[in-house]
Amino acid sequence: MSSIVVMLMTSICGVVLSDYVWVHLCCGGLMGFIWIQSDWLGHDSGHYQIMSSCGYNRFAQVLTGISIAWWKWNHNAHQIACNGLEFDLDLQHMPFFAMSSSLFSSLRSYFYERKMNFDAVTRFLVSYQHWTFYPVMCLARRGGTRKKLTRVIARGKI
Ligand SMILES: [Zn+2]
């Protein structure tokens, strides 16, 4: 976790102290790397693996930005039915991505409790998923944050 703090400080100092565009671009790339690393730390703390106690792991989740309620809701479903197309939400990204050709005939998502149709819009978007992957993933973090906030506000049964 200390390496993330060092990288974060390096990125912030690079942006604040430099006027060079390349320094800012490198700091942006470093910040993206920091986000990925902090998500994995959040994941591992959700499994109570990085600290010595549950309380410390929960504190680490707060630092990494992972909502434990959201994480349990999603990740338990993923772990219970790992790689099951109809149950594992980590494989259900239509209309943007299709993780298997089995999805070309639509999908019944038991996690989202709805049918994900492979319609004309989905067919179009999936046919370009090799180009849209990175732009969509840039926005996915924002969507994840919205889902986490919704989960906290809704206070639903977990
Ligand atoms: Zn996991």
Automatic annotation (TrEMBL):
GO cellular component terms, semicolon-separated: membrane
Stored InterPro entries: FA_desaturase_dom, Fatty_acid_desaturase
Localisation: Membrane
GO BP annotation list: lipid metabolic process
Superkingdom of the source species: Eukaryota
Keywords of the record: Heme, Iron, Lipid metabolism, Membrane, Metal-binding, Oxidoreductase, Signal, Transmembrane, Transmembrane helix
Metabolic or biological pathway: Lipid metabolism
Positions of the Fatty acid desaturase domain: 22-113
Signal peptide bounds: 1-18
Protein name, per record: Fatty acid desaturase domain-containing protein
Organism the protein comes from: Kingdonia uniflora
